[in-house]
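Re: weekly structure request thread

Next one in the queue (457 aa):
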Amino acid sequence: MCLRADQQFPSKPLRAKDWGRRLFLGFEPAASRMLAIIGGLAITFVLLTADVSHADGYTFDTGDVLRVSVIGEESYPLEVVVDDRGSISLPMLGDVQARGLTTVALSQAIQRAFQQQKLILEPFVKVEIGQYRPFFISGTVAHPGSYPFQPGITVRHALAIAGGFRATAVGNMEPALQIADLRSARAGLAIEEYRLKVRLARLQAESRQDKSFVAPPDAPVEFGGHLITEIIASEQAQLEARLAAYRDDISYLDVSLDRARKEAEMVAATRQEREKTANIQLEELQSARSLREKGLITNSNVLTAERAHTSYRAELAQTELQQEQAQQALLTSESELRKKKQSYEMDLISQTQDTQVELGKIQSQIRYVADKLLFIFTYGDQRTFDDLQGSVKISIFRRDQKVAHDILADENTEVRAGDVIEVSIVANKGFYAPDTSGAVAAPNAEGHVLPPTTIGQ
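Done, posted below.
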């Protein structure tokens, strides 16, 4: 690089920043390449580490929307939904199990899948949560339903999202019309609740391989006798059909297993007989060779004995191969029978859990309707936690990977994705006005007055 004279010998001293600028111009190409490399590494690091702390410890389940990025692959990034099997479907890999995994664990699982299938030797994978699965809230809230989950929210936040406590219906509908609607809604929910209880009884009987089941005794008063009979008869027919189909499958597999076992025993017995025959033929061959050495028989007799021995050995080898094939068929039949039983049991467990979840939701809605019936005649305005201190009952129905259970909660309990929050009001002195002597109790479906009790029980 050549400089003019005035550039080589400036008329006035250069400031420090001017010297630095001119020095950098001399090394600009190398510095640009170095900055590009450092920038690429920084971007990679940011992609791999961003937002990990926000999702740390959160495990995926059905309904979560995930954003998967694989650096350098045209098919990525993309958003996928965790399906009802707990899996996500990815280009090049197919189905990958995601249920019960965190962002870090799923990233590592996808990396291992790329490496095991030899698609990418050193993949850089990042998994983010695009959208959490929702939580549900019902009971004495203004707007029951499902809402997007946000990490760190508590029951108090969930109530605020749902509009807070609300005793009366929204709008200016006449109380008599509201009662009629609520009666109708409660009757429909009661039918669905009883149907789910009958199904649960049927599933429990099916798991015990019983041919019949005992129907729940608490049929709602809204039911007619013919409707109860139809529900029970439908589940009984389904029980008999499923048991018959399962027993037919097991019977067929048992017959196949018994046939394979007998064939294996028959081939084993044939092998033993041929081994004995081959040993006898070997002794005859050795005797013929001994007689030939003594000059008592000719070579033709020995050759005949050798051919016979060779034939017996070939038959023995064929029998050994048949025995191996029979043993393999026996193992296959045993495996199919075992898989059928396991699949049937897992299906029963899954149906039972789904029915329990549906039953919990229906019962929550029934309690909500009962709350509204009482509140319409007793309380008119929305209230807060402070107003209802000691009167709020909150339970969370939570289902993890193995079991589902109820949790007694308060306003500071942390909410998890997929939770079903049930809110009810315990009618006690903290809820009623100071003078409860003139309080009006709500009528039930028949118009009779209900005593002040725990609402939703």
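The CA atoms of residues 154 and 412 lie 6 Å apart. Residues 299-378 form the longest helix (80 residues).
Next request, please.
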